[in-house]
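REQUEST ID: PR-0412
SUBMITTED BY: lab tech R.K.
PRIORITY: routine
TASK: structure prediction, single protein chain
INPUT:
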Amino acid sequence: MGTWGYGALLLLSGIGSQPLIEKKITASSRLGGRQMVYASTALLMSSINVLRRDGRKRKRTAPPLGPAALSSGSVPPCGFHLGVILAILAEIRGFSMEDKCKLWAGTGYIGDPSDCQAWGYCQDNKLIDRRSCTEGLLYSFRNGTCKRASDTICQSQLSEICASLEPWNYVANPADCRRFVKCADLDDPTWGDCGVGQVFSNKKQTCLEEVAGCPQDNICSHMKDGSFVGDPNSCQSYYKCHNGFGTLLNCSVGRYFNRKSGNCQSWVPHYCSKDDEENLLTPPSTDHNICSKYYPRDRDGVQLLPDLMTCYGYYSCTSQFDVGQWTNCPWGLHFEWWSQRCGSPKDNSCSYDRCANRNQLMVATINTNCREFTICQDNRSMSSQKCPDDYPYFNELLGQCTDKYPNHRVCYMDG
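STATUS: complete
OUTPUT:
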């Protein structure tokens, strides 16, 4: 996909053994994944069709593959060709559409990382359909339509990747992560090559041993802007997608990303590992940074600031230069930052664990208009359930679902 069809043909035809110095590759040389298979089939014959940069075809006789073939005087068997091709495809593919649907908190179309012509449809964290654009068209993940190849960029552009890096940094070719180029030289690039069995890491700025694809394969590639996708490695973080790239965001302390709702929550989702679960944390008794960061500049005197870890704790600051002193609310109460006092939890949409510091079996789930409730165990949240249609609202004071809207602040205040 992207420019890799052309690069793969060069590599497999023996040209890849030459020093890899190549000028700017244009969009007209892009191939879909299906076309790559056609090209690999043609490679097993004595002559192949190679796409020129202007998109036209010319006849070329394939020389023997690599130094080993030159020394032996024979062309490697077909199995060797197929093995190299499969290795290239596996290296470039990254996350599959199934992987993306599983972690995406949304419904809609996504592009296929292994085929520029193909797309899929995600619903309820599953891939429920996959299809391809008609011949001559490529799928544009940016607007979710099939467009002419000349009007579509299948891969993320190098300029987009370099926007988040420094000019002196190097960046891997999105179409072939063995190759890399300096961001400052994009207008007239000279490509470096990691060599067989290695790939370039944008993050570490060095070549690494290829273990499981490109180091910078990201879950947001071929995803529409604004998508929230769970972190494959942790339930406590997630990605916000833009232009095919992901910005890593963390849930606050003690909260976990729910890939079904797209929100952070105070209980561990059932599909997460127990390793993700945090022990109950008590904030430090003093904090040297919270006063300087959050003390309001337009006020003076003692100000109480949330501890950013619990619903019931706060720090006392006398100025922005003070060291915060931690205190907790009495049992059964939560801290209200706007009133500077401890109050009833029913009037507070705290985004941390609402089961803490109180003796409740069930509490209202924030950001649900009191249509859901959270089950508590040992003063921490365990799971959330929805009230039945006949009794659609959860009343936290009564501890049950009712047919009347309770009008507590927790029902309508964003948390």
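NOTES: Residues 4-93 form one domain.
REVIEWED BY: pending
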